[in-house]
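[job 0412] stage=complex_fold ligand=3-hydroxy-3-methylglutaryl-coenzyme A status=START
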Amino acid sequence: MTFPSHVKLVEMSPRDGLQNESSDVFEGMVPTAIKLELIERLSNTGLTHIEAASFVSPKWVPQMADASAVMQGIQRRDGIIYSALTPNLKGAENAIASHAGEIAVFSAASEAFTEKNINCSIEESLSRFEPVIELAKAHNIPVRGYVSTVLGCPYQGEVSPNEVARVAKRLYDMGCYEISLGDTIGTGTPLSAKRMLEAVSRDIPINKLAAHFHDTYGQAIANLYAVLEEGIGIIDASVAGLGGCPYAQGASGNVASEDVLYLLQGLGIETGVDLDQLITTGYWISDQLKRQNGSKVALAKGR
Ligand SMILES: CC(C)(COP(=O)([O-])OP(=O)([O-])OC[C@H]1O[C@@H](n2cnc3c(N)ncnc32)[C@H](O)[C@@H]1OP(=O)([O-])[O-])[C@@H](O)C(=O)NCCC(=O)NCCSC(=O)C[C@@](C)(O)CC(=O)[O-]
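[job 0412] stage=complex_fold status=DONE, emitting structure tokens
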């Protein structure tokens, strides 16, 4: 078994982490200043990729309504890519106008989830992404592609690895430079994660694939270990385990960045990220949101 020597961590907390936050503390919206301070603190940890906001309909996801203010307010650092999620051309235009360093499009391997999440079929979502990718190319901005529900769907249940592979390949062939595979509701297990990855990596080089696992069933770290064994070198995670998709009921947070980093350090895998700084940031945002910190490593190590 050979693990990669280096893993790229993609930090999700400002976008996936906060998009579903129904913060009582702030009567709904998390203030832009808190989002910006979170991004600033994350920028001090050694992370090189931070998904900072999403340019989606504010009627669908009110928490991301200040995406332009967030993207424009970031104190940008050399060597850090601040990316934004975009569902359509309108979102991409706004993201690019707000200086997103990378944009991401998102579909799913389940028709039912795609309808609930972005109000169209998988096929329609892919055609919406064509002009997005074209526009990004014209601006020299890389595009990441997400496939959600890769290990289970909240509406249709089981999802076939072949369908995940099909959607992932379409996104890759359309020009997405990296495909992130989302276990949106965290129902995957190490074996199902490996089987899914085997199917996807038949068509797409493994170094172009990212694991984006939620920890709803407590399997995310085990699933990550399984896909690291297969050669995955890009992992999405969210500090303090923040997050959840508004269109996947019961879906809890992303796997905690602190827990992923602890796993990687134990395997001798380099990331360039400082665990203590990450833990401090996780406690800071948990305090702001008056939430229990969702990272087991942070709880064990303490403040
Ligand atoms: C895709 C749409 C817009 C379709 O929504 P729709 O209602 O079908 O769209 P529409 O084109 O009919 O537009 C409706 C209204 O939204 C506006 N609108 C339209 N587009 C935009 C835009 N980009 N930015 C701002 N406003 C926009 C548009 O202008 C219009 O405004 P109105 O005329 O009624 O005032 C909607 O369904 C939507 O925004 N969905 C986003 C859902 C979402 O953000 N889900 C969470 C992210 S995915 C996720 O978390 C999973 C992931 C990626 O993390 C991986 C994993 O874990 O699996």
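The pocket of 3-hydroxy-3-methylglutaryl-coenzyme A is lined by residues 16, 19, 54-57, 59-61, 87-88, 90-91, 106, 117-119, 146, 148, 182, 184, 212, 245-247 (CB under 6 Å).
[job 0412] exit 0
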